[in-house]
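Lab notes, practical 5.
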Amino acid sequence: MAVTQMATNNAQVQACRDMLQTLLGDLQPRDFAVRFWDGTVWEPQNGESRFSLVLRHPGALRRMYWPPKRGSLFEAYAYGDFEIEGDFESFLVFSKHMREQPRSLMDKLRLGARLYRLPKHDWPRPNWKPPQMRGAFRSLERDQQAVDYHYSMSNDFFALFLDSRMVYTCAYFKTPEDDLETAQTQKLDHICRKLRLRPGDRLLDMGCGWGALAIHAATHYGARVLALNISKPQVEWANARVRKEGLGDRCRFELRDYRLVQEPGAFDKVVAAGLLEHVGESMTVYFKKAWDQLKPGGVFLSHGIGMNYHEPMPRRPGFIQRYVFPDGELLPISKNLRFAELVGFEVRDVECFRDHYVLTLRHWLRTLEARAEEAKRITDEVTYRIYRLYLAASAAGFRTGVLHHYQTLLVKPDRGVSGLPLTRADWYA
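Output from the prediction step:
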């Protein structure tokens, strides 16, 4: 248990080190380093370090774990109490395992008392607060606030870590070695093939982001697309690309909430990629809107994130919901399918993309970390740290099975006739 001691007889360092040893419990040998605020380094026990935990002041460890809730750790990182050098995702996976170690009630009480007695320190924190959402939950006005907070922040910021078409949903990897551009093209193709788009098909994209899927469907499949979004910067970006590529006759982007569409039976196909996470328990509206706009025999592809059924749903909004995606809700796939069937849809295919999202997020995270200084100039230090944390935590969530991602293909039968082929062979031809 090698320790490089640059400042001797530091009781605060010793107290934090002893607390870390207790928190580790059975997670031995320790394969990461700890660097304390005075320069003391606690070397890993088994050689090479996966990451280094840097405690920046005497009160850092207390702020990480007190009060004893997950949000304390995330806020301590966002506000700069500690740093992670190296593999951030591995640190978060390790932290999850550490929290989940079995402890008796008495052990938890003793641990809480020791955490409370850790050194306190008036380390200054930035004057940065998460948004305060106003209005009725799931109202058009409140959803606009949530979208503006996240998606309308800065196109330049998102361009730092997304691919050239600004696709902000899970990619589709045929091999782990695929680069992000290739994997995102494969995802766009995979969706269009699942929808079985044909030239002249009318496609409704209910939440189009920066428009990559709509433009791909119009360019490569000859679809006539109406794409909707309530983020003005995203719609402006998408329309600029449509003008540049001369697709105005086939692809139209509108600044409009999908709930305000009133074109019953006008579309052959409907798609929503990345909208489900912003719908939550209002899924009846989501599925009913897609159902109403489809012709009989039409299909709807829903592409979205969900929680593992066995993970407890938080009673209060967590860090990601407060600091990254206000009012975001993740539900298990079983609940999504139930809502779809209640509306009338027939479930034709469900595909899990969990492993693909791990790879996607790692691409985004590595690129953002490599461009950290640019990100801080475009936004600020806290925003960069929040996004680094959010991408790493999401990758860890998919890696450990807390989070899932599914593409679901649903059909609106025409008097019992699906109109679909007997097999999926044409998707992979």
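Observations recorded by the TA: The longest helix spans residues 381-400. The radius of gyration is 24 Å.
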